[in-house]
Amino acid sequence: MDGEIHELKIVCFRLGGETFAVDIMRVRAIIKPQKLSRLPEAPAFLEGVINLRGAIIPVLDLRKRFGMRDPLNPVDQRLLIAMIGRRPVGLAVDSVTEVVTIAVNDIRPPPEVVRFGGRRYLLGVCLVRQRFVMLVNPDSLLDSCETDGLVEFMRGEPQI
Hints:
Elements: E1 7-15, E2 18-23, E3 27-31, E4 46-52, E5 55-61, H1 62-65, E6 78-84, E7 87-93, E8 95-103, E9 122-128, E10 131-136, H2 144-154
Parallel strand pairs: 2-10, 5-7
Antiparallel strand pairs: 1-2, 1-8, 3-6, 4-5, 6-7, 9-10
């Protein structure tokens, strides 16, 4: 074995009519939305926090982070509990569709035409079953100030 990674297992999810994915190794759980506690003066994309097995988890609405409209069908909404840095964060998505394995060689850089600022959130793009999938980089979802704020807020919280 040469030690190189040739395949990547990803969790695919929908935001509106688009398909996104995140590395399954970053995902700790997929759950139905839970009752949120709102935080005063939080950024619009930070929906609030939930209590998951004794841990306080901040929840980011990826639609708002990416500048998209409200979900069309809230029935299928899910929270991906993913690791951002060393902290669990809930990512609110419209639905989780599947887990697939892709060849690392099939991942391409994000298109240059992605000018909406969202390019910084992407690791790359690939095709899954003839569908264009955008691979999200969880570590890019928060800038350094937002990360510092969450770390300070979460200091001393139990990990899941």
